[in-house]
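FAQ: What does a ligand-bound record look like?

Like this one, built around magnesium ion:
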Amino acid sequence: MSIFEFFQALFQYEFLQKALFTSVVVGIICGIVGCFIILRGMALMGDAISHAVLPGVAISYMLGINFFFGAVITGVLTAIGIGYVSQNSRIKHDMAIGIMFTSMFAVGIVIITMMKSSADLYHILFGNVLAVRMSDMWITLGIGVLVIGLVVLFYKELLVSTFDPTMAQSYGLPNKWIHYCLMAVLTMVTVASLQTVGIVLVVAMLITPAATAYLLTNRLSVMIYLSALIGVISSVFGLYFSFTYNLASGATIVLVSAFLFALAFFFSPSQGIVWKAHKSRKNRLELLEK
Amino acid sequence: MLPFLKYEFLQNAFLTGIMVGLLAPVLGVFIVVRRQALIADALSHITLAGIAANLLLGKWSSFFAAANPIYMGMAFSVGGAIFIEQLRKVYKHYEELAIPIIMSAGIGLSVIFISMADGFNTDLFNYLFGSIIAVKRSDVWTVFAILVVVLLFVFFMYKELFVLSFDEEQGKLSGIRSNWILVAFMAITALVIAASMKIVGILLVSALMTLPVAASIRIAKGFKQAIWLSVLFGEISVISGMFLSYYLDLASGGTIVLCLVVILCLSIFYKKFTGSRKVGHL
Amino acid sequence: MNNNIESIAIRVDDLSFHYGDKNVLQHVTMEIKKGSFLGLVGPNGSGKSTLIKCILGLQKPQEGNVYLFGEKVNKFNDWDKVGYVSQKANSFNTAFPATAFEVVSMGLFGKVGLFRFLKASDKNKVWEALRSVNMDQYAHQNIGELSGGQQQRIFIARALVSDPELLILDEPTVGVDTESSDSFYKMLKELHRENNMTLVLVTHDVGVMTNYVTDVACLNKQIHFHGNTKEFEESSSENMSAFYGHHVHVLHHDHGHE
Ligand SMILES: Nc1ncnc2c1ncn2[C@@H]1O[C@H](COP(=O)(O)OP(=O)(O)OP(=O)(O)O)[C@@H](O)[C@H]1O
Ligand SMILES: [Mg+2]
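The answer part, i.e. the structure of the complex:
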């Protein structure tokens, strides 16, 4: 199927429009939030929260309510739990994260096997954006507006507390509070991404575009725009491949973004490995000539 | 004999479980002290890609259809391990970013391979979450072979692994050629992950490697004791997890990990009530 | 004085090192004789630790060579002749479940060789090393449960356990109380005198150090001074202030002087 046919299909099918719209929104907010996640060294935390919402989602399914509620509750509880464990028991942060997230995930898996419905499970785990309902789309959009609004409003505070937490403290910024807000935002972004990429792959959506942008620029503002853009590109092309070849949408979206990361990793003009190797070889040659 | 063990598939699962309950924590000790839990996680995801690739190839070639997918999983996992170890060495700075990305690329690939093969089926479900009914006799023998290799390696390389985990500089000064030992260690970890997969499932393998260790190092005096305790915790949770899984009909990976979590909580409380000893951070 | 190859423990030959674009050592050349006790001083960031790492082959210099006991460092194999306590010795992972005894026994692994295990005689050596730093009663404590100064002693014991001919210590007394650090310096002096051990000590404790060492080297990217203690003391006040870039009082602590 050519791109052209894809566009035709896009005009024709409402489900495709919904899917595209949702995944673009997800690409944008994951890109934005991801920047703060990786700059604050919380990549692992992103992984943890996204896995930890599983029991919440499973319980919501069982009760027949929108999984948004269950997921937000378990996600926030996990974030608080990790904070509590690492502050009070001298277990270091990354260990606390690992422990909390595997336990939550295991609970989720047990609950889901009790449900005995593997089809739903696969959708939760790997996403199925083509089945997005109207209500999911509105939730995603709502979360997107909220997240972007928060980032715009608190940009300065986020900037300072990300780069220099001690200075932020001395300015009187409530670091702890900012951290938990970010966790709450992270949970919401996870929920918004559930339909598109699924639980297992949310972390990829969060980290990969931001990491790619990080390789390309040193300025936070530029990095945020770039990262959102890369998120959108991955979503659109991922959806195209998913629709064309009938593959799981989460996987194709994530693979496109991983591909973009690999490109930046090897070829970025400032940090790319190929250029670096080239440069250091040139340096060495120059030294030899001298 | 226990009624539990009269079926062959249960015997298989039981034997594999006991071996895995020994293997995963033994390697886990080194992984946890070197802070490489994330790498273990990444390897398990790459293993899944190998298994999925085999399922896909099996559609076209009778050779792959007949083969046990675990071998392809191992090949991918070992390849991934070597790749990651090189990446770690050369680009220290990017490790933290690159590994989660490799990991999700691994799972993305597996999902695609599988949806190209025949869509999601229960087979995949078993690989993801572990199952005690899906273990074959040939799996038991494969795991046994891995057990022998790993135990020999750890026994003869104990000194070297111990120094390298504690501080690599001292290792180099002891004239230890750290490179190939670390690569071999990663490759062996990859094998163990592939071996543990049937019982605990891809998504929870790393928990079986890290949680028993997290519990044991809170209590243990010394490194050897930490290893023995981890193995003890690993075995207790694998065995009780498998029983629970069988009688309650739940995915074995989930129940095993929940047992581990209980043990970990007990060790934390034990520590709280008995010791005022200084505990370090990990 | 006898100056042939035999009497040189460490030879650094026109060594330059940079981390990326950052120049840390420039054309450093020095010889350290067997049986000498060298104090290496210099301000923070002057490249002392880096020089030590180059000497031990833990960092590869971009230019120049290092010879240990006459052998190029990358060909050198007798690592049990060399003991090393790194500056960051106690920044290890404190939850690491290893006892003090296990940590000290690591110092013997180079000697024991691949595929072999520690023998009873090796274990005696570990006990001896623990006793020499007065830590034998803590042998079966986990290393992370000891105080900073006690940990430092364990690392010193690890460096001593293989009876090295050359002992290199990078700020070993940081975090050790004055009394212990005095007795520690005395112990070094004894090792130096009785076992004829070659010692290299990096320190900021200029005043105390001059009471014990035989030679002093001042490093700040380059070697600014290398000579015996007496020469150093004679030239010290003007040298040091020029060298550190501000006025430094070189205090002479008389305690500990025999
Ligand atoms: N791993 C590294 N990467 C980049 N630069 C480094 C690294 N280690 C040290 N440096 C830089 O090299 C210079 C020399 O460092 P070095 O540790 O050798 O100093 P030092 O003399 O031991 O200082 P101190 O007295 O504080 O121990 C410093 O400017 C430091 O910033
Ligand atoms: Mg230093």
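Follow-up question: can I read anything off the structure? Yes, for example: The pocket of magnesium ion (ligand 2) is lined by residues C 48-49, 87, 170 (CB under 6 Å).
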